[in-house]
Amino acid sequence: MNRLRIPLARIAHARSGDKADWVDFGLFAWNAAGYAILQREVTAARVREHFAPWLPGEVDAWPLPNILALKFVLKGALQGGGARNLRLDNLGKAMAAALLRLEIEVDAAELDAALVAPRVGWWGEAAELASGGVA
């Protein structure tokens, strides 16, 4: 089996924000093939390990299969809150990019499947037809 190390950004996109001392991530696969990889590779423990240098708190995770997403909450991620710590660019919105740099292992065939499968999203078939087939 040919295993590859890739950043999450190859098969997913993310949104994040913060509230008080917590950071909230939504990690979204572009399609079902990518979601299967995310479910297997991106766990609360992996996310905690990825952010370990500055994350003293716990990480909670929830699968959201209906929207091909995983939700993560990083507790204690802002050392008391965005206004209380001295780190630059500390707010949760900037942290989605850091999550997308997490490297995972995938089989070459499953990566190909995730990259070739059509992207699923809010734009739907009607928007694709209206744009002349370009979504």
Question: How many domains make up the 3D coordinates?
Answer: 1
Poorly predicted runs of 5 or more residues: 126-131
Largest sheet: 4 strands, antiparallel
Order of helices and strands: EEEHHEEHEHH
Task: Average the pLDDT over all residues and give the rounded result.
Answer: 84
Topology (elements, then pairings):
Blueprint: E1 3-7, E2 12-19, E3 22-29, H1 32-41, H2 44-50, E4 59-64, E5 69-75, H3 92-100, E6 103-107, H4 108-116, H5 124-130
Antiparallel strand pairs: 1-6, 2-3, 3-5, 4-5
What does this structure look like?
This protein is 31% helix and 29% strand. A hairpin with a 2-residue loop joins strand 2 and strand 3. The chain has one domain (3-130). The strands form two sheets. Strands 2-3-5-4 form a four-stranded antiparallel sheet. It contains five helices and six strands, in the order E-E-E-H-H-E-E-H-E-H-H. The protein is globular and about 45 Å long. The chain is α+β, with helices and mostly antiparallel strands and 135 residues long. Helix 1 packs across helix 4 (108-116). The model is unreliable at 126-131 (pLDDT under 50).
